[in-house]
Write a structure and sequence with these properties.
alpha+beta, seven-stranded mixed beta sheet
């Protein structure tokens, strides 16, 4: 799967227009499709997802005042908050950014502030894990500016915690795991009992066709939480 070079150029240009300089870092986190294993991740089962060529891109630079400011090219309002006073205020994309920051700090990470521009070509509500891609992109951003290594499994755990405890969607961990750990040319077999993984090579020439049924969903409103409760 190739990268969307045009989207990267777009956010780098938007960053320069917004902040008057080149971005210090550019990070990317992909969406995903699942080949097999539906609702088995939160039941300690196996899943076999693969990352796709749709992704969240962020251009950013550090700031030294402990604040995070992010403008999305797809959303009307930016998000702007202080790392020492993160408040859950409303629904929407900003909560994923704030939630990841809160969960990283709760896990003991010493975070630095940053400002940036993001854009995504993962359709929202399409079942391609746009929220997990955003969470992992935010994790990449904090790792870059704060100087800690990006641990794909640990970051996936914190992304799931963001969904469960901050956003209120009791999802499993598959989406974050594949966004953080996917490899080009491979699906990823995940054993959700211990989060061990095995890259599974895709046959040469494989094409995955994703069809838009024009149906949109939200984990917090679709009955997902009730299904998980029933399984538990």
């Amino acid at each position: 799967m190739g990268f969307n070079v045009n989207l990267r150029e777009r956010i780098e240009q938007a960053f320069e227009e917004q902040f008057g300089s080149h971005a210090t870092f550019v990070v990317r986190a992909p969406g995903r499709v699942n080949i097999i294993g539906e609702h088995t991740d939160y039941n300690d089962g196996f899943v076999l997802p693969m990352a796709i060529d749709r992704a969240v891109w962020m251009a950013l630079r550090p700031r030294d005042d402990g604040r995070v400011f992010v403008r999305s090219l797809e959303q009307a309002q930016p998000t702007d908050f202080a790392l020492d006073n993160i408040q859950h205020t409303a629904e929407g994309w900003s909560e994923y950014v704030k939630g990841m920051a809160a969960m990283l700090q709760e896990a003991g990470y010493d975070l630095e502030g940053w400002e940036g521009v993001l854009s995504s070509d993962v359709p929202v509500g399409s079942g391609l894990s746009s929220s997990a891609a955003l969470e992992m992109g935010v994790g990449c951003a904090f790792a870059a500016v704060s100087g800690f290594p990006f641990d794909g499994v640990e970051m996936a755990r914190l992304g799931q915690k963001t969904e469960n405890e901050w956003v209120g969607a009791n999802t499993g961990i598959m989406d974050q795991m594949i966004s953080a750990n996917g490899q080009e040319g491979y699906a990823l077999l995940i054993d959700c009992r211990d989060l061990s993984t095995q890259p599974i090579p895709l046959p040469e020439g494989t094409a995955v066709v994703i069809m838009d049924t024009m149906t949109r969903h939200s984990h917090t409103e679709s009955g997902y939480n009730e299904r998980r409760a029933s399984c538990e």
